[in-house]
Amino acid sequence: MNALSRRGLLKGAGALVVSFSMSRAFAQEGEVAGGAPKEAVPELPGALAQSPFLDSWIRIEADGSIKVFTGKAELGQGVKTAILQVAAEELEVEPRAIEMITADTGQTPNEGYTAGSQSMPNSATAVRNAAAQARALLIGQAAGRWSLDPATLRAENGSVIAPNGETLSYGALVSSTLLHVEAQPQSPLKAPDQLRQIGQSMQRIDIPGKVTGGEAYVQDMRMTGMVHARVVRPPSYGAQLQAVDTAGVDAMPGVVGVVRDGDFLAVVADKEFRAIKAMRMLAKAAQWSESETLPDSSALPDFLRQLPREDGTVASEGTPVPSAHTYEASFTRPYQAHGSIGPSCAVALWEDERMTVWSHTQGVYPDQKAIGEMLELGPDRLRVVHREGSGCYGHNGADDAAADAALIAQRFPGRPVRVQWMREQEHGWEPLGPAMVTQVRAGIDASGQISEWNYELWSNTHSTRPGPAGALLAGRHSAKRFAPEEPELEITKSGNGDRNSVPLYVSPSKQVVWHFLKDMPLRVSALRGLGAYANVFSIESTMDELALLAKTDPVAFRLKHLEDLRAKAVVEEAATRFGWSNEPLPQNTGRGFGFARYKNFAAYCAIALEAEIDPISGRVQVKRVVSAIDSGQAVNPDGIRNQTEGGILQSLSWTLFEAVPFDRTRVTGIDWSTYPILRFSGVPASVEVHVIDRPGEPFLGSGEAAQGPMAGAIANAIRHATGLRLTDLPFSRERVRAALMQAAGTELTQNG
Amino acid sequence: MRFGRIFLGLTVLVLIAVGGFVAYAWKSEIPAQEAQLQIDPALRARGEQLAAIGNCVTCHTAPGGKPFAGGLALNTPFGTIHSTNITPDRNSGIGTWSEAAFGRSMREGVDREGNHLYPAFPYDHFTLVSDEDNRALYAYLMSLPAVDAPTPGNSLPFPINHRMLVAGWKMLFFRPGAYQPDAAHDAAWNQGKYLAEGLGHCGACHTPRNALGAEIAEQHWDGAELEGWHAYAINEKSPAPVPWDKEKLAFYLANGFQQIRGVSRGTMAPVTTNLGVAAPEDVSALAAYVADRMGTPSPERIAKGEQALAKAGETSEATPASAAPTADSQAIPSSASARGQAIYQSACASCHESGRALPHGGLNFHLSTAVNAPSPQNIINVSLYGLPAPEGEGGPIMPGFAGALDAGQLTDLIAYLREEFSDQPAWPDLSTRVEDTISGKTRVPLYRSDGTAASPTDSSVRTTPWL
Amino acid sequence: MAVTLRVNGKEQSVETEPDTPLLYVLRDDLALNGAKYGCGLGQCGACTVLVDDKPVLSCLTPLMLLEGRSITTVEGLGTVGKPGPMQQAFIEEQAAQCGYCIPGMMMRAEALVRRNPDAGDTEIRDALEANLCRCGTHSRILKAVARARDLKRGGGA
């Protein structure tokens, strides 16, 4: 281990550029307009590259109390606990000694969005390195005091210990400037065999509070003098407010005021249910003009294919070899919703000409910019603080609710305003996961190896996140009418609609094109996995068809086309744990396999499952699922399992049940009766996740790794059970039944 | 001795009678069929549509079981009978049944071995099914995956556990024979009657039964109570506030809801879920016949219907009562009717007066058949247990209020609904029925709502009260 | 007007309009976080609490129905320091992702095991059918409820 001295650190820091600039933070996701990493400092690990000062991440007070800061937000994925573990590990303290501070423009580094499975690779990596360097600095301080060689000292439980047993606590060693230094490219990280926290399935720190009614969510905030607001949203995307007579609402008990700003309409009341009643009344009083702006949902794939487009080449590698067999198919995915169980919520307070907004946003800094633009407030007058919300799977209504609250709060100085969206508002207005069409033509040569791979996808952008005020509903609807930003085609490493569109499998040629669709008749943005869900579904379906053409077992066929040993390992692990075989299964029961490495550089995930298809109803029941995941060094294996199980079941729900219905004017999927999702009767009897730990390897994000492989595995199990290759998501009962009947009819023609 | 002679004479007479009865009752075994038959796909496809009209899968599937593999416990007033496995399994199903054996079971209510079947299997209706349709049904059933699922034993008390007794029942109530068209009507009408009275077995629920469990011919389709649900009269006594016509009925039967008449639920939900995949012309024929039985509504009925519609429209347009608290809502009222009204306004009106279209919105009670029906049982059931969400598809969902409403509150609420939204007299048995339903004395099997997909629900996915 | 209820064993007098759904009374008047707003339509179960041991959707239950009745929320099952069996089971199984649906799940499960202390896996699944989870925590929730049942019976699992 290199002994670091403060001097050494400072010396090394001289070459680094200090910056909190927005552009760097925005650049990291590959799903944000603005593009690929541009200005990051490549030498520094993780998000230290954007926020190099150690005390941006770790602060130790004279009383020994420790605060760890992350610009990432807890979204229910357990990241707060995982980062805590990492910090405790390298600081050599117990986790309970650390207070975690998450995303807050007033306190934490700007880490852009908590998205794209980036928290572990970026934030946790930064914290780990910062913590290791902080430990070295503390040891260095003690070495100076004791005049001992730092190499003879060790840190333990918040103190530095000398060979003679003498100790100095961190509190005694720290000074106000000790950690106000820039990070070094190299950190004295603990060796894999020395780890005590990393790799342990530490219980999540937030769960005890959540199961006992602790204040856990932004919805739970109660501030003195707080009032309750409800927004009256337009009935459809294109609707405009013609007239509203607010007299009746103004006279209702408890009503504090009605806000009308352009097409933005809201009511504020002293009590929550009074606000709801007033909202209902206001909705009835409002007159809107509506227009038909939506496509024909029954012909959505055709609509997408004929929209104006701009083509982007995602891959153009190699040259094909002659094919003995080819497979060609088109796959589709409908618009799908986030559908958090708790609709979006925010609290805002306008006081002394300054605004504070509490939001379950994925990006406090981007919201600060967007809301700031909308209200003409600089960052010095606008603070955005993350508070947890209900499950977040991408760009949902959080930012919009934050903007609603801020817009309303500005009219009621000194009064905290809590905005709670109603269920139908969440469903009707959240940005949806974009509908997609893909087209694949792939072949195998005479030896059964893939000979060519040609792939096209039609999709909108998968990110219309804030940054500009036009990304916010309140911004668009207010009298200032901020316009949404024009989406731009960008081909990045992590991908967007084209995420995972290039198969990891070996092929002499890979040609992948994204037909980028600029028109967005339905509001769309990032939903867990972005394009990877539909792309991996298409690729994995195709792989099974090619395996059939090659008369090879689908798992063996995949292994034959994988070079990455870690990829092979997860495929083998899932297959072995599942008991993959060619043994016959009961009638109408099938096995399915799916695999992908998320973004082709994050976690590896393989899924094997068994599903039964009821031929009468067309109902698909997934019976058991076995998965293997490699997300590098596993910080919290149970956390990874939890996330992966969740991804598996959520993807099951998308794949079997979900499509946002709409007519030519309105989104009609506005609640759980019109947008059904998985209930317990559809949950497999068992869901197993096996984590392959890779000590010493970088952390890889795992939150989105299961979405695509699960869809592929289900499709492949249906194929195995029934002989039907289903290409249109979701595999609803109606659709499966129709396919079965059509197949029976085809059989009839063939036999006749 | 005289007494002895009389006794002897009587014994002889009884013996002769028994002998005759046995001769009547005895049915031969039809030999087991050897190999699997070639199945004509067209016939099979027709059979699938017919099986949907027969609602076969609903009774012949146990919770968690395989479709058509039987085992569902049917709680009859006489004891528990389990439905049989009608998949082509040779061991526990009907794999050894020839087409003739199947046809005889439908026509005569006798299994392949010659045993009389309990009339829980509605052969009193199925006897009307034509040979041709039985062939199609047979082809369909024989095409199903064979499932080895032995039928659990029935738990019937003596003497009902003796199947011979069924022969006596048949002698009294059962007239076998295929449907004979009525020359006075056209083919469509006849097809409708044939399906409604035969395979569709509407009367099995909608006609009251006598003490021995037979349908009372004189009260054909007068409405009846079965399995904890009231099946409405579907003749001229239909309690629907707005009279049905054949188009509306056809839509309802195929889709499980009708915009101004409500959603199907309870034991009707699986019927409409299956009819959704029946041949549309069959559903139309069924609907036309039922509408014919309901008759042309009188001018008074039509006027009443229009009145109900107007009232519903009025209420829908107005601000929901819950949105505008009045002085009334500041205190809990003391009269039962006012209490019922207050409960309605605060717990029901936000959905039932939302104006949201069916099947996702709540029906305005001015249009509710349940509120106008002779029995409050359905509205009690729905208030307590709601409409459980369809599985994996869109459709009506209503939460149950079993935990929220106590017996007194529920009685007040329903009495208010009756008073406010119908012109019918108060239900005299309301509070008893409420008590019996809450206590579990009245058993109420629940079915998931008929969703919006054109696919039947999987009958193996049953539901329990969402408590 | 004032309505008197027992909430988690404590008499509470609430002064508000009697048509106010219990959910808002619990959250806003009594500052209890357990019951969550999810849909306000009785479709998701996030607001489930117990009224006299039966599960009730608090978002659709007006206060006026509850005079003198006994209400239990997740706060009534134990505390962070002293979690009850249901809470302990959910912690041990780490049965939460975002956790928003969890209190509703726990209350419905609590009603089940109070009604049927021997509830089997099928009964647990059936009972929870009314509640939605979006994070995909279902398998863990099922395990946690089975564990809670066992803890309540006094045995380990």
Strand order of the largest sheet of chain C: 2-1-5-3-4
Order of SSEs of chain B: HHHEEHHHHHHEEHEEHHHHHHHH
Strand content of chain C: 5-15%
Give the number of helices of chain B. Answer: 18
The total count of strands of chain B amounts to 6
Fraction of residues in H or I helices of chain C? 25-40%
Pick out its properties.
heterotrimer; A: 752 residues; alpha+beta; Aldehyde Oxidoreductase, domain 4; seven-stranded mixed sheet; C: 157 residues; DNA polymerase, domain 1; 2 domains; 5 helices; globular
Describe the 3D structure.
Chain A: Pfam families: MoCoBD_1 (PF02738), MoCoBD_2 (PF20256). Chain A: This is Molybdopterin-dependent oxidoreductase. Chain A: Keywords: Signal. Chain A: InterPro entries: Ald_Oxase/Xan_DH_a/b, AldOxase/xan_DH_MoCoBD1, AldOxase/xan_DH_MoCoBD2, AldOxase/xan_DH_Mopterin-bd_sf, N-heterocyclic_Hydroxylase, OxRdtase_Mopterin-bd_su_IorB, TAT_signal. The complex is a heterotrimer of chains A (about 750), B (about 475) and C (about 160). Chain A contains 19 helices and 24 strands. With about 750 residues, chain A is an alpha+beta fold. In chain A, helix 3 runs parallel beside helix 4 and helix 17 packs across helix 18. The relative contact order of chain A is 0.11. Chain B folds into three domains: about 160 residues, no CATH class; about 100 residues, Orthogonal Bundle (Cytochrome Bc1 Complex, Chain D, domain 2), CATH 1.10.760; about 140 residues, Cytochrome Bc1 Complex, Chain D, domain 2, CATH 1.10.760. Chain B is about 45% helix and about 5% strand. The longest helix of chain B is centred in the first third of the chain and has 24 residues. The relative contact order of chain B is 0.10. Chain C is an alpha+beta fold and about 160 residues long. In chain C, strands 2-1-5-3-4 form a five-stranded mixed beta sheet, sandwiched between helices. In chain C, strand 3 and strand 4 form a beta hairpin. The longest helix of chain C has 15 residues. Chains in contact: A-B, A-C, B-C.
Helix and strand topology:
The complex is a heterotrimer of chains A (752), B (467) and C (157).
Chain A: H1 6-13, H2 22-26, E1 58-60, E2 66-69, H3 79-91, E3 98-101, H4 119-146, E4 154-156, E5 159-161, E6 167-169, H5 170-173, H6 207-210, E7 227-232, E8 240-244, H7 247-250, E9 255-261, E10 264-269, H8 272-285, E11 286-289, H9 300-306, E12 309-318, E13 325-333, E14 345-351, E15 354-359, H10 364-375, E16 382-386, H11 398-409, E17 417-420, H12 423-429, E18 436-444, E19 450-459, H13 473-477, E20 509-517, H14 532-549, H15 554-560, H16 565-578, E21 589-597, E22 604-613, E23 620-630, H17 637-657, E24 686-691, H18 707-722, H19 733-751
Parallel strand pairs in A: 2-3, 7-17, 15-16, 19-20, 23-24
Antiparallel strand pairs in A: 1-2, 4-5, 5-6, 7-10, 8-11, 9-10, 12-20, 13-18, 14-15, 14-17, 18-19, 21-22, 22-23
Helix pairs in contact in A: 3-4, 10-11, 14-18, 17-18
Chain B: H1 2-25, H2 41-54, H3 56-59, E1 73-76, E2 79-82, H4 99-108, H5 123-126, H6 131-143, H7 164-173, H8 187-197, H9 203-206, E3 224-226, E4 229-231, H10 246-255, E5 257-258, E6 262-263, H11 268-275, H12 280-294, H13 299-317, H14 336-352, H15 369-372, H16 377-385, H17 407-421, H18 430-439
Antiparallel strand pairs in B: 1-2, 3-4, 5-6
Helix pairs in contact in B: 2-6, 4-6, 8-12, 10-11, 10-12, 14-17, 16-18, 17-18
Chain C: E1 2-7, E2 10-15, H1 22-29, E3 48-51, E4 54-57, E5 70-72, H2 85-92, H3 102-115, H4 121-128, H5 138-152
Parallel strand pairs in C: 1-5
Antiparallel strand pairs in C: 1-2, 3-4, 3-5
Helix pairs in contact in C: 2-5, 3-4, 3-5
Keywords (chain C): 2Fe-2S, Iron, Iron-sulfur, Metal-binding, Oxidoreductase
Protein name (chain C): (2Fe-2S)-binding protein
Domain 2Fe-2S ferredoxin-type (chain C): 1-77
